[in-house]
Description:
Elements: H1 17-33, E1 40-51, E2 64-66, E3 91-93, E4 98-109, E5 116-122, H2 125-128, H3 132-146, E6 150-155, E7 179-184, E8 193-197, E9 205-208, E10 217-220, H4 222-225
Parallel strand pairs: 5-6
Antiparallel strand pairs: 1-4, 2-3, 4-5, 6-7, 7-8, 9-10
Amino acid sequence: MAKSPFPGMDPYLERHWRDVHARLIVYACDALQTGLPRDLRARIEERVLVEGPAHERGVYPDVRIEKRRRPSPRSPSPGSATRAAVAEPAVVRLPGDEIATETFIEIVEVGSRQRLVTVIEVLSLTNKLRGEGRDLYLRKQRELKAGGVNLVEIDLLRDGEHTILAPLNRIPPSLRTPYMICVYRAVQFDQAELYAFGLRDPLPGFRVPLRSTDEDAPLELGPLLD
Length: 226
């Protein structure tokens, strides 16, 4: 990615979030793997969502207005003089269902068990705007917490609703910044770690939890977005 003029998160990256999201997941996965124990692997997984009018979503609008091509003039037919004159309509192409793929990182144990240890999510508007995608994400949040899986959520989008696991009403007003990283450790099920930062703050490095017997894996966002 091009060098950003901002000391921390570059808000202009939000315009191309699909591309930024995909690249950030790949870079973060590679960076994490170097700090993992030999019997753990970081891998990229994906989920597929169908976006369309039925889901009442406007995440990636695809409505086009085209000028209707006029038909070739024809000779007037008998009785056409009595017909009412009509205006030429514009043709609006309606958005059809769109397949959206979201990637995320899983850290799993190597071997036959393939036990899921940690999930790392970089939030997208699909997760933050009301609709089926958000509902599915919040359900996944609950399932991971109930299943004893660590969860790291990286929210670098200013738009949308508060989505990370840490409830907004439990976060002090001074920490309700545009960007947040939430780290949930399964061994501390009644709390979460919060990294809050704004436009003028550098992107923080933070610790990714693994198993209770492992040291945390460090992850720095700054170099991944430079």
